[in-house]
Specification:
Keywords: Ribonucleoprotein, Ribosomal protein. Helices cover about 35% and strands about 25% of the residues. The protein has about 110 residues and is of the alpha+beta class. It has a single domain, classed as Nucleotidyltransferase, domain 5, CATH 3.30.420.100.
Length: about 110
């Protein structure tokens, strides 16, 4: 990110997908601190999800992240694909569930 857009888009969505788990976090760019995080490794979700690494798990993580964003009163999040990443599968499920829950994506 350039220096100007770093301050225009203070909250950035970061996602990580492994073969076992899905995790996402929202980072405050100016201070480089994690504001909110959600993962399929959390104890409450392990019993709820039959598989912790599929598209359904990614959608559930998106819903949980949206609820936590609303509690912190963060209305919008910046989202950019890294080089070589495609908008499909788990990524699409997570971002779409955030969007459906009322979080604006910049």
């Amino acid at each position: 990110m350039t220096r100007v857009t770093k301050y225009l888009k203070p909250y950035v969505l970061k996602m990580f997908f492994s073969n076992k788990y899905v995790s996402a976090q929202v980072v405050h760019s100016p201070t480089s601190t994690t504001v909110i995080a959600a993962s399929s490794q959390e104890k409450l979700l392990r019993g709820e999800l039959p598989n912790t690494a599929d598209v359904a798990a990614a959608a559930k993580i998106g819903q949980i992240l949206a609820e936590r964003l609303k509690l912190k009163e963060i209305p919008a999040v910046a989202f950019e694909l890294e080089r070589g990443e495609r908008y499909h599968g788990k990524r699409k499920a997570l971002v779409d569930s955030l969007r459906e829950s009322g979080v604006k994506l910049i």
